[in-house]
Fold this sequence. Notes:
Layout: H1 2-23, E1 113-118, E2 124-127, E3 135-136, H2 144-147, E4 158-165, E5 168-176, E6 181-189, E7 194-199, E8 204-210, E9 213-218, E10 222-227, E11 237-238, E12 248-254, E13 257-262, E14 267-270, E15 277-280, E16 288-294, E17 297-302, E18 306-310, E19 317-320, E20 330-334, E21 337-342, E22 345-349, E23 356-359, E24 366-370, E25 373-377, E26 382-386, E27 393-397, E28 406-411
Antiparallel strand pairs: 1-2, 1-28, 2-3, 4-5, 5-6, 6-7, 8-9, 9-10, 10-11, 12-13, 13-14, 14-15, 16-17, 17-18, 18-19, 20-21, 21-22, 22-23, 24-25, 25-26, 26-27
Amino acid sequence: MLMKRSVETIALVVVAILLGVAGCSTPAAPNRADAGMRDAGIPDGGTPDAGTPDGGTPDAGTPDAGTPDAGTPDAGTPDAGTPDGGTADAGTPDGGTFDAGPCVEPTVPGAAPGFVAVGPDARVLTSDDDGKTWQEQPRALLEDNLQDDAAAGAAGKDLRGLAYGPIHWVAVGGGSDGRTNYGRLSGSELLQHWYGFLDDFGFLSAVAYGDCRFVAVGYNGRYLSADRSLNHWGDGSQIKPFPFTPSLRAIAYGDGVFVAVGDKGTRAASPEGIHWTVANDGTGLEDLRAIAYGGGRFVAVGQNSLVAVSPDGASWADSHVSGASGDLAAVTFGAGTFIASGSAGTFASTDGAHWTSTSSSHHFSALAFGDGTFVGLTPEGVFYTSPDGTTWTERYTDTAPDPVTTVAFALW
């Protein structure tokens, strides 16, 4: 009897085990929404995507794990322009190089090419027919802070530098009320509306645009830099080190570099207009007054027909225009040729080193090139045009008591 019950008990246990196994379902596969390998960018599964917070191998830069991406506050190498470290981006108050990513220029619907000239009393002239005729912009288009400033009186209305970046024009200058040297910086969207500010950082002589930013230079080696939106202009810092504080007279952009030149042969280069490398610290005897970029080189000109040529703003070769007597005040590049002019006359060069006299009777203080045309402006306010920099035709005279002094070409 005992054996029979034992056999029955064993049989019941076996049956129970078999029934238990049969009644257990196979566990369901984990839901890919909350486990397993995430796919790239898809919330429901696969290989982990970059930056998904839910699971898988942590992406770059998520707070949970992994190698943090550039610029996240938690770890890793901070990106350009973040307050926590790294090289500051262009346009931020702290300065530095641009954030990663190309400079993408916006299109400008409805804009047309033309020449623009500025000068004393914040006057603006424009030409839409290759410099043949000129019109003064109505004063109504010029905001009060460009025409008048109660604190500075007549100071700050002298515009000397002009540059164009997509959508925006920037004019710089300044003046003095007898006690303070003011710097003027004004911007305009396609010349339709001017706005800006006046400050005591000193006169600004010139401005250039390149790689999505404007850089202005001027009195006592000062510079300002801003992104193309014209936000976050700097505070008028000085380029250092200099044994003294020379004024910077001109600036140009080319091949990823801004190059500024000025008194005593001063020249300095910067990739973004904030961190500068001094190539000549102002120990020369002759001033450099103008600079242009073209054909893979910078060409600066100045006193006693001095010409300085550089491929990169760092190494320079200086010479004087052979046979010239006088100064060179302006230079531009167009149609494969540099044109330089001043009291010494007008000269042409394809490489910046070898010059040919094209005119001894034309003495331009400003030059520009655009749309196949050179425009020259004399100190007396007379505009000339030329198809080749050799043959010049008188076009227009600015009869104001203080005529315009600077000319540039772009869209407006």
